[in-house]
Amino acid sequence: MALVLRNVAQLAGISLSLLGWVLSCLTNYLPHWKNLNLDLNEMENWSMGLWQTCVIQEEVGMQCKDFDSFLALPTELRISRILMFLSNGLGLLGLLVSGFGLDCLRIAERQQELKKRLLILGGILFWTAGIAALVPVSLVAHLTVQEFWDETIPDIVPRWEFGEALFIGWFAGVSLLLGGCLLNCAACSTRAPLASGHYAVTQTQCLHQHLEMQSAHPKV
């Protein structure tokens, strides 16, 4: 039963981490971190991401323009770019490291201590990737709320609002954190036994020794 729970925790952890990594990559490149709806022209909507600004018009469709310079970006977008790149890189490294530590892979079966360390390291990498994904989306959301309720800005000026990418980024960060927790819990649980083939060989050797002892000491 403990072995089954351990395997389930490992598979659930790696699946959640993979989902979180994919969503964090999607969050990084989606141009929908902030949305702007114009009351004067309801047929035109603006959206902003880390890499480009887009305008959506009913007649023309979506048109996007990349940012010209990294240094010309607002501070929160520059920080968000760096942290999202860090999250994507650490998530990918965590997938590679923890993948070799899974019990379902027959790699280094007898080196259980090594596999345990790989799982723990992968879990820590997923934790770091999750935090690196949560910080930028939370920072942009916080500044968006501040600007939305800024009384110094006239009411006639349009305000930026939350985009879909922020919610995807929050879900990605939470998935990475949960995946890392499950992997660490699985690594700290009871070790998995050896493979069935090794167990069968051990049983055969014990039975053979028992028969030899009986033949050496026959009953009188």
Describe the protein.
About 5% of the residues have low confidence. Helix 1 packs parallel to helix 3 and helix 1 packs antiparallel against helix 4. The protein has five helices and five strands. It has a five-stranded antiparallel beta sheet. The chain is an alpha+beta fold.
Strand order of the largest sheet: 4-3-2-1-5
Distance between the termini: 45 Å
Order of helices and strands: HEEEEHHEHH
Structural class comes to alpha+beta
- Give a quick account of the main beta sheet: strands, pairing sense, barrel closure: 5 strands, antiparallel
Task: Give a quick precis of the structure.
With 220 residues, the chain is α+β, with helices and mostly antiparallel strands. It has helices spanning 2-29, 75-100, 112-148, 164-188, 196-216; strands spanning 34-37, 44-48, 52-57, 61-66, 160-162. It has a 5-stranded antiparallel sheet.
SSE map:
Blueprint: H1 2-29, E1 34-37, E2 44-48, E3 52-57, E4 61-66, H2 75-100, H3 112-148, E5 160-162, H4 164-188, H5 196-216
Question: Which terms would index this structure?
Answer:
single chain, five-stranded antiparallel beta sheet, 5 strands, 220 residues, alpha+beta
